[in-house]
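Table S2 (continued). Query chain:
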Amino acid sequence: MPFWKWIDLPPLWLLLFIALARVQAVRLPVGVIDTPVTDLLAGLLIGGGLLLMAVAVVQMRQNRTTFMPHQHARHLVTNGVFSRSRNPIYLGDAMVLLGLIVHWSAWPSLVLVPLFMWVITDRFILEEEAWLRDDFGPQWDEWAARTRRWL
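Corresponding output:
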């Protein structure tokens, strides 16, 4: 695998977007809101995103398939959290990003969430979906028809 594939990983993209949001929050604060409601919302998003990622990884490990990008899956996991989202790990990443933006009151950085989702879709999801379509055919088609890409 080429070196750039080793560094082209969703967690590194997530860290980049988190860093951008943090820089905006510190250097250009706008409308800071620090209430128990925003703290609760931020905590639910961050905790829920981390939990969703963990559950998805466990499910993939139980099904003896990879959760690493740029690798073909051995099995198509369609139950559990994968019955609600075809990409629960990436969805969890977006939830963590959104939760940190809320926590830091980095409101202008809200634009980073759909941008992050676009980058992840372009860099990872489209390739993974093409592989799944090729590897699992009708089983993939049925799952893709009933399960949304994100939520």
